[in-house]
Amino acid sequence: MAGIVYELIDTLEEERECYEGLCTLAKYKEEAIVNKQIDFLQEVVKREEEFAGRVSILERRRDALLNDIAIVTGISAKEINVTRLIEKLGEENEASKRLIALRTELLDKIEGLKKQNELNTLLIDHSLELINFTIKAIESTRLQMPSTSYSKDGDQPGMAKHSFFDQKQ
């Protein structure tokens, strides 16, 4: 079982590294949004997709390893998780200590990523509000501006015919 546990530790370390990368990319994304760097933002999103794909693969591997550990330990596959494995191994075990540290690091990284993504979402929403406001302002100005075209007799459409010379004072 020790081999499977150490393989699980390696997988969790790789997963932690991916989440560190995602956190860094989320900060770059914030910078790109604030500075309106669309090309840079597209590149960051592309890299995020690569990291997310890698995390997905690692999560599947982690689940498979936990299922293997469940079979070896006799714990139900539905009940097995890192916390339950730590309990089974004993908290003083070297592997357990590493698993505890990795679990804490992963949870911290995921929470940091969640907060950064929430901030980025707010920034994007704010940018969209500004864009919509600008579009509406342009549309309303365009509707209020008189037409620059003239009719056949030289009058502007929609303008009242009014001459100052026809009136007596």
Write a structural description.
With 169 residues, this protein is mostly helical. The chain has one domain (2-134): Methane Monooxygenase Hydroxylase, Chain G, domain 1 (Up-down Bundle), CATH 1.20.58. Helices cover 76% and strands 0% of the residues. It is built from 4 helices and no strands. It has helices at 2-34, 38-73, 82-89, 94-144. Helix 1 packs antiparallel against helix 2 (38-73) and helix 3 (82-89) packs antiparallel against helix 4. The protein is rod-shaped, with a radius of gyration of 31 Å.
Mean pLDDT: 87
> Could you say which overall geometry the principal axes of the C-alpha atoms support?
rod-shaped
Could you name the CATH topology?
Methane Monooxygenase Hydroxylase, Chain G, domain 1
Structural class: mainly alpha
How many DSSP E strands? 0
Q: How large is the radius of gyration?
A: 31 Å
What brief labels describe this structure?
single chain; 169 residues; mainly alpha; Methane Monooxygenase Hydroxylase, Chain G, domain 1; 4 helices; 76% helix
